[in-house]
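Sequence, structure tokens passed on for absentees:
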Amino acid sequence: MAGKVFVDIAEAAERFEELIDIVLRDDEVVICRAGDPIAAIVPISQNGQGTWDEVWALALKGRPANTHQTSNHDELYDENGLPK
């Protein structure tokens, strides 16, 4: 990647189309809240031929496993998904 551009949420909302053009030039756009980075916009594929498999792989890579989940509350619902 060539470089990083840091913007706050309000600026990102106002300049979204311009930020996409920046990403297409192989730069990374980092979106911040109160000065802390919270998200990034990066190109899907180096050769511009992004596939859905690449999109899903990136989405999964960016989503950490929920290690704090203790229950999915299956005990509260019947086999049809309705409350017991």
